Amino acid sequence: MNVYSPQKELQELGVIPGDDLTTETALIKLAFLLSNYPAKEAKKLMLENLRGEFNQRILPDQYFDEK
């Protein structure tokens, strides 16, 4: 989330990038973390793939079987 200038501005404001998280998953994850961890640690944990909620990036050459 640090490629485009609006995204950089959002990060400077403290917005946490969600990558490919759905809104529902982000809400539940945030609710869980805030109810179990201090806010500073919850913010850090929002960026980590705790239970497979983030998909790993797949490059085109890994996806397509070129023969």
Task: Describe the model.
With 67 residues, the protein is mainly alpha-helical. The chain has a domain at 19-50. 52% of the residues lie in helices and 0% in strands. The protein is built from 4 helices and no strands. The longest helix is centred in the middle third of the chain and has 14 residues, at 23-36. It is flat, with a radius of gyration of 15 Å.
The number of distinct β-strands equals 0
Mean pLDDT value: 86
Helix- and strand-based class? mainly alpha
What sort of overall outline do the alpha carbons produce when their principal axes are compared? flat
Mind summarizing the main beta sheet?
A: none
User: Which segments are poorly predicted (pLDDT under 50) over 5 or more consecutive residues?
Assistant: none
Number of helices in the DSSP assignment: 4
Beta-strand level of the residues, as a percent range?
A: under 5%
Write the H/E string, N to C.
Answer: HHHH
Report helical residue fraction.
Answer: 40-55%
CA-atom Rg in angstroms: 15 Å
Terminal CA distance: 34 Å
